[in-house]
Specification:
Layout: H1 3-10, E1 17-23, H2 44-52, H3 58-63, E2 83-87, H4 96-103, H5 121-131, E3 136-140, H6 143-157, E4 161-164, E5 169-175, H7 181-195, E6 202-209, E7 216-217, E8 222-225, H8 233-239, E9 244-247, H9 250-253, E10 261-263, H10 268-281, E11 285-291, H11 293-299, H12 304-322, E12 329-334, E13 353-358, E14 367-371, H13 375-384, H14 397-400
Helix pairs in contact: 2-12, 5-7, 10-12, 11-12
Length: 401
């Protein structure tokens, strides 16, 4: 046992388990370089509050969300139960994988490739040759809108629908009766190998069902992602024998690497239910959750009211998690980027993200300030579990134990 571990034990403050909860896309204001990403004025949480004239988030307020620099329109608790701050993204980019990878210690020098005008001929020629299929689409589009537009033609021709977005994604949609799900996955695996060299982070299978005018995406979506380009804190934890549980799309984001268990979730409420199940079963290590509905269902669709309602629903469920935590737990709540639903853009936004850190035996009310990188979370987790430093970030553990 190291002297540091002995100190933890002597103070009765040893941390055995970290619950890391990502509120996907809940940004809190533009970064200094937001203009370089055409995101000046973006403030996901702040603009939602301004647009609607308020939001009901009593549990996040009690933790100290309203005390974070730049957050306006929330109650400023005089006695917050958590410590609080905000984090800047050091990596280039503003997508899901970049944000999550940085949270676990990996900073990217260049952003992933995006194709707002569709994929180049060289990629699509290889797609046709190696899958044996022609295609429809090949443009940036909303997934729900493109199946409305091309779904009937797809059924007539059997050609899969290829599309992208502002993110680094190659998405392939197909009706489950025309291209069975397993075959669609095979097509995605072939495509994954094609686009590796183009630095495209995710290939996504987007199956749908239903008849004319009633097309609906099914729950059989599957992501085929690049694995992180260097070691993360997840890899270190797994190598040292700690349980590392990914809930939601965490497994996809990390290319199924660094995890000992993956649990999928249908939506935010299911994600919280699965988190509660994990807390009851997994007594040490890391439980890592992504709640994606904010981003996928509301941010990208500029649905301000839906986004706010979803935040309020999650806030109501936070006590269900807090009440299960033991003296040896640390709960970290943060985000991976912004996706401001009040702006004309439907893309992610380059924003600061909130940082809330709670533990029954940890200090509360500590202002952790503005962290220079999301990797401070990963470095803190590395220090908690004594697995050695990761490549980036500064731990805030000593400020709160």
């Amino acid at each position: 046992m190291t002297s540091k571990e002995m100190n933890f034990h002597m103070k009765g403050k040893k941390i055995d388990r970290v619950i890391l909860l990502i509120l996907d896309s809940v940004g809190i204001g533009g970064l200094p370089d937001a203009k370089d990403y055409k995101d000046e004025g973006s403030n996901t949480l702040g603009n939602i509050i301004k647009t609607l004239g308020g939001i009901v988030l009593p549990n996040l307020e009690a933790m100290g969300m309203g005390l974070i620099q730049g957050v306006e329109g929330l109650k400023k608790s005089s006695n917050p139960i958590a410590s609080y701050g905000r984090m800047a993204e050091a990596s280039k980019g503003k997508d899901t994988s970049t944000g999550h990878w940085e949270i676990t210690g990996l900073i990217l020098d260049k952003p992933f490739s995006t194709y707002p005008n569709g994929f180049p001929k060289e990629i699509m020629d290889r797609f046709k040759k190696e899958t044996g299929l022609d295609y429809l689409g090949n443009k940036a589009a909303s997934g729900t809108e493109i199946i409305k537009e091309l779904g009937e033609e797809h059924i007539k021709t059997g050609k899969p629908i290829v599309y992208t977005s502002a993110d680094s994604v190659f998405q392939i949609a197909a009706h489950e009766d025309i291209i069975p799900v397993d075959r669609l996955y095979e097509i995605c695996i072939i495509t994954r190998k094609i686009v590796d060299e183009y630095n495209i982070v995710r290939v996504i299978a987007r199956p749908f069902a239903g008849g004319k005018g009633l097309f609906k995406r099914t729950e059989h979506r599957k992501d085929f992602s690049l694995a992180p380009t260097s070691e993360t804190v997840l890899d270190k934890l797994k190598a040292r024998g700690f349980p590392v549980v990914g809930i939601g799309k965490i497994g996809y984001i990390y290319g199924h690497r660094g995890l000992t268990q993956e649990t999928h979730a249908k939506n935010n409420m299911d994600g919280i239910n699965k988190t509660i199940e994990a807390i009851k079963k997994i007594k040490r290590g890391l439980i890592f959750i992504n709640l994606v509905d904010f981003d996928m269902l509301y941010g990208h669709r500029n649905d301000v009211k839906g986004y706010a309602k979803s935040l309020e629903e999650v806030d109501k469920r936070l006590p269900d998690i807090l009440n299960l935590l033991t003296d040896g737990d640390m709960l970290i709540i943060t985000a991976d980027h912004g996706c401001d639903p009040t702006t004309p853009s439907t893309d992610h936004s380059r924003e600061y993200v909130p940082l809330l850190v709670y533990g029954k035996k940890l200090k509360h009310g500590i202002n952790l300030g503005t962290r220079k990188t999301f990797a401070d979370v990963g470095q803190t987790i590395a220090e908690v579990f004594e697995v050695g430093r990761i490549n980036n970030g500064s731990s805030f553990l000593q400020k709160i134990i």
